[in-house]
């Protein structure tokens, strides 16, 4: 078989709008796994959250989290790759965001920090209520994010707001004036990682880890932060619900995340 690895985004791709993996998708992925294809969860989410869903599909492959800043084995505590934001840059980003009235969130490999329970921290707190305690994401509300940055390795910072024009303006300012990677995973957010961090780079690192060529890799996504991996892949796929920007560079457009797009693709093209 030509393809040996499938890297899949989570939100808007592997997960439907209810944040679920359908039984049809689970079955299709199980059959792909049985054919020897490596199934990789590749997400902007924190590792703990990605791990929960990786267990649901039964993948054995390492997980790519935090938009490619962190690659770790699924079933053992071994980090394959980790790239952190420089502390001074992280502090500058926090200052810029707070000066504009935003509530930034700081992500380490296992904890989300914020000064207020809102957006990401609130969403993960609600999500934690539905899952076992040992699988929950750590969320900490703190007074000062600068202390968090000083004392921890920072994988990414997320800025989220419903003031879209103001948000976009700050995103473009950071993107054009700082040596960092900036992507959006939703219409109302942007995420900042260390320079040259991307899902595409992380998928390449994992492909090299398995001695695979890019034309043996499939990547599937729906948003701006998936562009780099869709461009890298031998077969780059956009979901039916993907942004037009991603659809324009994809090799193939499949059905939406609410219509079992991944399951249908695997059934028709892989199995």
From TrEMBL:
Domain of life from the UniProt record: Bacteria
Keywords associated with the record: Hydrolase
Gene3D superfamilies for this protein: 3.30.1240.10, HAD superfamily/HAD-like
GO molecular function ontology, one term from the record: phosphatase activity
SUPFAM superfamilies to which the protein is assigned, alphabetical: HAD-like (SSF56784)
One cellular-component annotation, GO: cytosol
The UniProt record lists the keyword Protein transport: no
The keyword Hydrolase is assigned to this record: yes
Pfam families, per the entry: Hydrolase_3
PANTHER family to which the protein is assigned, alphabetical: HAD SUPERFAMILY HYDROLASE-LIKE, TYPE 3, PHOSPHOSERINE PHOSPHATASE
Protein name: Hydrolase (HAD superfamily)
Organism: Caloramator australicus RC3
């Amino acid at each position: 078989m030509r393809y040996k690895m499938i890297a899949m985004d989570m939100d808007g791709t592997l997960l439907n709008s209810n944040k679920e993996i359908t039984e049809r998708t689970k079955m299709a992925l199980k059959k792909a796994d049985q054919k020897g294809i490596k199934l990789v969860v590749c997400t902007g989410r924190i590792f703990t959250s990605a791990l929960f869903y990786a267990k649901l599909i039964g993948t054995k492959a390492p997980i790519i989290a935090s938009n490619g800043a962190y690659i770790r084995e699924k079933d053992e505590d071994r980090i394959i790759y980790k790239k952190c934001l420089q502390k001074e840059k992280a502090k500058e980003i926090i200052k810029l965001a707070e000066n504009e009235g935003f509530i930034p969130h700081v992500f380490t490999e296992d904890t989300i920090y914020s000064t207020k329970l809102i957006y990401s921290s609130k969403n993960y707190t609600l999500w934690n209520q539905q899952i076992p305690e040992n699988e929950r994401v750590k969320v900490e509300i703190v007074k000062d994010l600068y202390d968090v940055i000083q004392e921890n390795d920072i994988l990414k910072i997320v800025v989220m707001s419903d003031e879209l024009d103001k948000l976009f303006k700050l995103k473009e300012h950071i993107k054009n004036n700082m040596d960092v990677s900036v992507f959006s995973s939703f219409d109302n957010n942007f995420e900042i990682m260390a320079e040259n961090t991307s899902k595409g780079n992380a998928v390449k690192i994992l492909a090299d880890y398995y001695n695979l060529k890019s034309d043996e890799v499939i990547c599937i996504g729906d948003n701006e932060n998936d562009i780099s991996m869709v461009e890298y892949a031998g077969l780059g796929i956009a979901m039916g619900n993907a942004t037009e920007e991603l659809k324009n560079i994809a090799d193939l457009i499949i059905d939406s995340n609410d219509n079992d797009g991944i399951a249908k693709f695997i059934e028709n093209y892989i199995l």
